Amino acid sequence: MNKFVALFKRYCQQNESDEYDAIAKHFLLFPSEDTSNLNNAIGTCRTIVKIGRVVVAKEGRMKGAGTALMTAAEQEARRQGTFRVAKLLSQCVAQRFYASCGFVPEGEVVLEGGAPHIMMVKSLE
């Protein structure tokens, strides 16, 4: 689990870890088939009750990396069979990306960590 938190911290300004890291399903995205070196990972996310901590390194952006992570997270939620809706709290600047993945905004904009965020949802049925 620490390797996922380390990658998250590597690409984010936040230095947070929470009680969900230990029980969440974590995904790492690599630019090639070689997954032997964690430093080569270009993205990470986790699933639990909602999709969270989606991070893509600059070198993976605009190349399908974020979409690949979201697809993997949705597939895991469907595989578990307990989720009917995927939820995530999106930074408002990333709202367009999540909309392109089929998520729709729900509710009002809130401040989270000093940045505006909005809840976004997607049916998994």
From TrEMBL:
Check the record and name the SUPFAM superfamilies matching this protein: Acyl-CoA N-acyltransferases (Nat)
InterPro entries per record: Acyl_CoA_acyltransferase, GNAT_dom
- CDD domains (alphabetical): NAT_SF (cd04301)
UniProt GO BP: UDP-N-acetylglucosamine biosynthetic process
Task: Give this protein's Gene Ontology molecular function annotations.
Answer: acyltransferase activity, transferring groups other than amino-acyl groups
Q: Which controlled-vocabulary keywords does the entry list?
A: Acyltransferase, Transferase
Q: Which residues form the N-acetyltransferase domain?
A: 1-125
The name on file for this protein is Acyl-CoA N-acyltransferase
Which species is this record about? Rhizoclosmatium globosum
